[in-house]
Each structure stands twice: as structure tokens, then as C-alpha cells.
Input
Amino acid sequence: MRVAVDFEECLKDSPRFRAALEDVEGDVTELEQKLDKLVKLCIAMIDTGKAFCLANKQFIHGIQDLAQYSSKDALVETSLTKFSDSLQEMINYHTILFDQTQRSIKAQLQTFVKEDIRKFKDAKKQFEKVSEEKENALAKNAQVPRTKQHEVEEATNILTATRKCFRHIALDYVLQINVLQSKRRSEILKSMLSFMYAHLAFFHQGYDLFSELGPYMKDLGAQLERLAVDAVREKKEMEHKHSTIQQKDFASDDPLLEYNVDAASGVVMEGYLFKRASNAFKTWNRRWFSIQNNQLVYQKKFKDNPTVVVEDLRLCTVKHCEDIERRFCFEVVSPTKSCILQADSEKLRQAWIKAVQASIATAYREKGDSPEVEGKPSPSRGSPETGAEPKEKLLKGESSLQRVQSIPGNAVCCDCGLADPRWASINLGITLCIECSGIHRSLGVHFSKVRSLTLDSWEPELLKLMCELGNEVINRVYEANLEKTGVKKPQPGSQRQEREEYIRAKYVEKRFVERCPAASGGKPRPRSQGPQRHSGSPEGRAEEEEGPPTAKEQMAAALRVRSNDSGFQHSREQLASAVSASTLYEPEAERPEAAASASRDARPDVPGLQLYLASFQKSLPGMAEALAHGADVNWVNAAEGRSTPLIQAVLGGSLVTCEFLLQNGANVNLQDSKGRGPLHHATVLGHTGQVCLFLKRGANQHAKDEEGKDPLSVAIEAANADIVTLLRLARMNEEMRESEGLYGQPGDETYQDIFRDFSQMASNNPEKLNRFQPSDVQKP
Output
């Protein structure tokens, strides 16, 4: 039992003992408040649930009445009766759940509060009483004159008796405290465990019930498809009429609140606003403002030439302005200046803010769809992986399940071979059946992150990651030595215990992974990194004759490629010139000597170096193999400026490689020796897709490098409108969430929509994010 208050200190009655009592008493008081609150919430939840069941019963009675009314239609009557019976059974399950909740939460916690905490309070009262008597006895004993022997003896006897009584009461009080501190853990957890088991039983019962009803519902759906053709056509006609009438009603309500980003005239919105002058007097003037041609302009008179406030809306942000005396103000911020405007009402202010935000979003798409330089577009700097994915994979309406299952080996579970898997491990890049996915989930997210292919929403970069790996690639790594160990792979009908032992041995213990060559004396590793050659080709025959290269040979070759990669170094020099800051991105460790030094320094950690090199080479199989051999995902290469695999993935230009490292625990804010993290490097290189990804994954955009520059200042120097706007939007969204106390919330809809559009373009149409053509960059 964990001792909250020491018994020895109790006998001493030291200040330390009194302080410990004070802490415990305050903690118990707070515990009682929390438990009372939880019990009240539980009671409210049960009452609400019972009201829901009552309303549901009335609804079911309505279904039954409708079924009786439809007695002439056998299909309707049979279906409604079957559905009402199933819903009635679910109400019974709900009732059982509420009863179990009342017993597990309400009853158990109330008993704990009324009995155990009350005992504590009673013991506290006795302790305080005897403590006061002890103090009085001590004071009286101290005040007795030495000449009055009779009074001295009487005071001494009273003090002795009081001290004895105090020790007994204090020891009992400390015992009660320690017992309470120990018991409350078991009581709370036992109550919650019972509550969770009740939910488990409830959902199992519901699943079994609707599993039986599923075939009938599927058959009924097939019948309804034939009956729904006319209904769909009529519904579309009604929706068209409804939309037309609704737009007319909205327009007639207040025409000034209307904006249209697709207006033929090019004017998104226009109207009068007060503008605060930038002079010393800060005067306010009423001007006619309009949003047109991707600009915010105003004019005093109709014949006056418009004055441009913001030349490019992609470089600005808009937000509420509440720190001035005037009402209905908002601020438009660009990289060079700020403009404070005032609307006539709150509705107008909101309309103007939404119009500016919508225009910003439209400006992204228009600039991304129209190439800035005629001719064949160059590969995207936002995500250089352009033509790797077939076009049929991007067809609208194709589900995540279909795309992932189309990868070789993904049509069956990676661990047991069951057909048509509906679950996936996103950090491993494999598909799983429901049984194996439950075992993967029990391993913990540091080993496997499980997600449904049909129930969960999939971000484009994550979906692309799943399509880049697959069961065949991962099993070549994690089952390389399976036959040598003599362990049999589970089958679809295998017991759960057998599957669990196999999966734990495969992914946690990594028992079937080929031993790392550094530890096995140069033993060759499986050829899973880099492109696969068929045995019929000349390269394949040569490889079979000479044998597979060792890991040391592979890394030496990779380092030679890095040291001789003039194209990569030249592109970095070009970018440094375009940014007009040649010292911001000087080539590092691109020399053969540095590469050799990196090989020498990193030799004790072969998997870490393999991950480091594979990240730059965009080899996901090689990265997966390195992680299987125990590579640290945040491995630091001291010979190359403390660069990490994630930074190398940025330099390699692969969005999906960055996503793979992040899903496997890479630190998005780990900096190199010059204080630059992945977000810094992606901004310098102009990789818009990677910037969007890092911001979504919580990158710190306020971090500064050794020159005192944050990513936003770098993007402004490079005049990269996409990255400037992404960083501005992320910063504004962060400020809004902090001011409104929305910690942990994703942000407003405009912010989410814009980042969603960038993610789609970076993964599916990366050429739209290209902002610089080779001719735009001046050679140094």
C-alpha cells in the first residue's frame, strides 16, 4: 500500500506532518467534489437515456401503426414489422446498459463517497478536537508556577493523558488517510471498468442483431433501386426549384451581404467601408471598396482610379479587430502593411471577412490551374512525385478500399491471408482483417496505427503512402526469415491466441526479420530497397550471378551518389539565388570527404544510416527495412550538420516519404546544427506540399534559425505566395484558437478547406503548386 502520510512523522507531530495533512485534506475535498459531479452527470445521462428510450418506443409504435396501415402492401408491412422488432430489441439493450451504468457508476461511487470519505471526515473531526485539547494542555502546563507543586503535578498528568490520547487518535487518522488513498484507486477504476464492459456488451449485442438483419436489408436495398429511379429524378427537380427559390429569398433579404467569387464581371463583392488613414491623426474616411482581379481596391468617386490596398490576396490574411474603440472593425494584413476597415454592421463585417477568405481560396486554385510560363510544366516543387500514380486511381468515386486493395498483395490480410481486408496499419502500410487489426491495436500506436478503410476519412498523402508500400513489400522485410524459424503463419481460421503470438513475434520482437549485416558479419540483407529487377533482364541475370550487395556496399554506393549528385546541389544553389539570401542555404556535406566521414561516424548504427540515406532516395521499402532493423526515426548525422532522416526526406523532395516518417514517430520540430527544422528546409526549397503537411502535423512556425529567420520571413523573401499564405493562415488560425480558448480544435472552415485543397493538389496534382520555372531562377 502506498503511504500518503508517514506514521513516524505522526508521532512527532512535526510541521512536515501538519503540511502533509493539509495537502491530503485538500486533495480529499477536491476528490469528493469530482466524484459528486461525476455521479450527478451519470444520473443526468441515465435520465436522458431513459427519455430517449421512451421517445424511441413511441417512434416504434408509429412504425407499427404505419405497418398496419400498409397491410395491403406486403413488402412495406413485412419490412416495417421486421425493422420495428429490431429497434425494440435495441431499446431493450439500451435499458440493460442504463441499469448496468447505474450500478457501476452511480451506486459504487456514491457508496465510496458516503462511507469511506465520511469515515475520513469523522476521523478528521476527532483529530482536530484532540489536537486542540493537546495545545490547551501544553499551554496550561507551561503556565503553572513552579512553586505550586500540586498544580504542577495536575498539569503534568493532564498533559500526559492528552498526549497519549492524541497519539492514538492521530495514528487512527493517518491510517484512515492511507487506506482511503489506496482504496480510491481501486474503487474508481473498478467502477469505470464495469461501465466499459457494459458498453462492450451493448455494442456486441447490437452488432450481432444487425448482422442477422444485414442480408435482408441488402436484399431490400436491391429491390428499392428499381423503385427509386423515378423518385431520384423527381427529387433532383425539386432540389433545383428549392435552390432557386432559396437564393432569391437570400438575395432579397439583404443584397449587401451577397458575394460571388465566380461573378462574370470579376467583382466578388463591393460596398462602402470606413478606412483608417495611416497618417498621424488616424482619421477615418468612407470609401467604396471592392474585391476584384485578386486584389482589394477602393475609390472615393466613381471616376477615380482605384487605389490598391492588397496587390495579391494570396499574400494577405484577414481577421477581426477588437482592440480599438470603434465597432465592426476588421484588419487586412499583407507582408508589407496593415489596413483597418470598419463595416456598418456585424453582418456586413462577417460578409466582408468571408468574401476576402473565399477570394483567397479562389486565388490559390486559379493560380495553380493556369501555368505561369508557356510550354511543358516542370516537376512540382511542392511534391516532385508527379506521374507515379495511374490516372485511374484518381477517378472520382473510387473508395480508399478499392485503391489500397488494388496494390499487389493487399487483397488479403497481411498476417493471416483472409480475403477482402477492411482495415489497415497506416505506419506499416499494410491491410488487415478485423481480427488481426484488433491485435495490432493492442500492440500500441508506437508499433501499429490501425485505421478503417471504409469507416475513417483518409487524407490524400496518407492514402498515397498506403499505395506506395503494401503487404508484399512489408512481408519481404518482416517475414524474410520465416521459413528458417519453422514458425507457421496463421490461417484465416486460426485461433486468436495463435494470431496474437505470431503478430507480436513479427512486429514487436521482429523475430523473422533478416539480421542486420553489421551484427551478422556482413551477411546480405533482403533486396527490398530500390527497384526490383526481373530475373529475365540482363541486370537481373548479372545480379543472380554476382549475388546481392551487402549493406556496406549499398551504403557506400549511396554515399557516392550523394557526393556526385551535381543536379541536387545545383538546384539548391539556384534556389539560394532566387531567395536572394545565398547564406541561407549553403550546400553541406555534399563532398566525398564529408560522405566518407558520415559513413565512418555512422558505421556503429547501420540501420540509422540506412534510414537516413533511404529517406533522401525516396525509397520507402528501404526505410521500412531500416526501421525493422531498429533504426531510430530521429537519428542524427553529426557529420552532415546534425541532419535527420526527416530533413533528408525534405531535401529529396518526397511528400509521401515525409508522411511515412511522421507516421512512425519522427519529430517534426527537430533542428539541425543551423537551427533549421523540416519546415525551414521545405520553405527554403519551396516545397509547398511539404509545408502544408508539416503545418498540419504541428510544426512550430515561430522557430528561428541561427540567422534569426523564421519560415515566414524566408517565404516572404522568396516571394512564394502559396507558402506565405499557408504560414499566414496557420498563424492566424492559431491566434484565433488561442483568443477564443479553442485549444485542440482544428480551426475555422476556411482554414480547413484551404489546407485540404493544398493536400489534394500536393498528392494528386503536384504540378499545380509549381511557382518557379527553371528560367525564373538566376544562376549565381
Residues 260-369 form a domain with the PH-domain like fold (CATH 2.30.29.30). The CA atoms of residues 270 and 290 lie 4 Å apart. Strands lie at 267-276, 284-292, 295-299, 307-310, 317-320, 329-333, 338-342, 423-425, 430-432, 450-452. DSSP finds 25 helices and ten strands in the chain.
